[in-house]
Design a protein that fits this description.
This protein has about 450 residues and is α+β, with helices and mostly antiparallel strands. Helix 2 runs antiparallel to helix 3, helix 2 runs parallel beside helix 15 and helix 10 runs antiparallel to helix 12. A hairpin with a 2-residue loop joins strand 13 and strand 14. The protein is about 35% helix and about 10% strand.
């Protein structure tokens, strides 16, 4: 409550006795004792988001105004698994598995309304989370989980098969490249009024998730998906061949770095080979490293170096402050809001449609992808990078100990002083920080 001298504010707080019909609260987690204060603080923070919906668990994406979202829940699920909360993870997989229909999952759930399925990443995150749980526990037990009469294996097979053949909402696999086409506004960068980041075509992180999901299917569902291994290999080759931008460089320290296209822009029906590579430097490409989708180590090291340009304390910018060759215009009511050749927007403030939304994914720093940079270092350099990774992750203490104390905000300004914005407490910011911290 900002106050001027001589002014005052009054805050009234009331407590109402809850009705008898409320469901029982989530049981407290059983945890191993730890001497790591950061782990303990992050696990405690994560508890605030795991709640009961009817007869199952779900995840509140953020406070104060988000409910349970598909991709958010499934990304958070990876942190829940890393923390050893396997029963809760299995319950969450069962809960979302029963919503699968023709390869789609809900983008968000409003009460009993799960009709919004405009997401190309949530079903793939489902597969990745299932793979995490199987690796942490037991593959057979995981694949046999009951999702309202179907097993988890049935759900995964349905997702992968339907992605190949085409989903009712426009997602499909390009036969020539093995890559997945995503309609506009179907990725996590799904702000659509104004159309800041449509990313229609072949977004890079969708391909990383797709390759990881195919490999899991090839390894554990080979009889049902005999084509998965070959398709994963084709998609991986296409990722290396079609996304690499050897002529785009940015100065990182004293050296130059190159990276992957953030997306291959295309209209429906356009093959990936004929799509337009977008040279925007974004952190989404880090998932190609952390999920082992990119097999070329030299490229993986180079793109990770490039992403150092995006790091701020506790967050990672969604776009680098540099000129782009492929323009990224943002239009609203026939008015151009940005410089398409210099689309970086470093401050998330002002009018929602003309100021904040254009900045949301075009320079605003995000907490959930921030740990991916540290994870990429660990992936590439092993334990030699552990101290560096911990130091980077430790910079999140600046936001953890301010604002909503003991929590991580949704976003920060890309520009200094990197003020906290958006939801003051965001589930995937906590869960990803915890997951990668436990890898160090």
């Amino acid at each position: 409550l900002p106050l001027r001298g001589g002014h005052s504010a009054r805050l009234d707080v009331a407590h109402n006795d809850p009705p008898d019909t409320l469901p029982a609260p989530c049981p407290p987690p059983t945890r191993k004792k730890t001497t790591d204060p950061i782990r303990r603080a992050l696990e405690t923070a994560l508890d605030a988001y795991i709640v009961t919906r009817d007869d199952a668990l779900t995840v509140i994406a953020g406070y104060p105004w988000f409910l349970d979202w598909g991709r958010d829940t499934l990304i958070v699920l990876r942190g829940i698994i890393a923390a050893g909360r396997f029963a809760a993870a299995a319950d969450l997989l069962r809960a979302f598995g029963r919503f699968e229909d023709n390869g789609t999952l809900p983008n968000m759930i409003r009460g009993n309304d799960a009709s919004n399925r405009n997401t190309s990443d949530a079903p793939l995150w489902f597969c990745v989370a299932a793979a995490d749980l199987a690796q942490a526990t037991d593959i057979k037990t995981t694949l046999d989980l009951d999702c309202d009469g179907r097993t988890l294996a049935d759900v995964i097979a349905s997702i992968l098969t339907t992605y190949c053949n085409g989903t009712p909402n426009g997602i499909h696999t390009d036969p020539g490249s093995g890559l997945v086409f995503s309609p506009a506004h179907y990725t996590w960068m799904d702000t659509n009024h104004p159309q800041g980041t449509p990313r229609q075509g072949y977004p890079v992180e969708i391909q990383a998730l797709w390759i990881a999901a195919l490999r899991f299917g090839a390894q554990h569902l080979s009889q049902r998906l005999p084509w998965a291994a070959a398709l994963a290999a084709k998609a991986s080759r296409s990722l290396t061949d079609l996304y690499w931008l050897p002529n785009r460089t940015t100065l990182i320290g004293a050296s130059r770095a190159t990276w992957l296209a953030d997306s291959l822009a295309a209209t429906p029906g356009t093959p990936a080979a004929k799509a337009t590579p977008e040279d925007a430097l974004r952190p989404n490409q880090l998932l190609a490293v952390t999920l082992n989708a990119l097999t070329n180590r030299q490229q993986a090291c180079a793109l990770t170096r490039a992403c150092a340009n995006l790091i701020v304390p506790g967050g990672i910018r969604s776009l680098a402050d540099r000129t782009v060759i492929t323009p990224l215009p943002v239009w609203h009511n026939s008015t151009l809001l940005n410089d398409p050749q210099r689309p970086y927007w470093g401050t998330y403030t002002g009018d929602e449609n003309t100021r904040r939304k254009p900045a949301y994914h075009n320079g605003t720093a995000w907490s959930w992808q921030f740990p991916l940079y540290a994870e990429a270092l660990l992936q590439l350099y092993g334990k030699n990078a552990s101290a560096t990774a911990k130091a980077l992750l430790g910079s999140a203490s600046e936001v953890f100990n301010s604002g909503s104390v003991g929590q991580i905000p949704e976003i920060l300004d890309g520009n200094t002083p990197h003020r906290q914005r958006g939801c003051h407490s965001q589930a995937w910011g906590i869960s990803e920080l915890l997951r990668v911290w436990l890898k160090c």
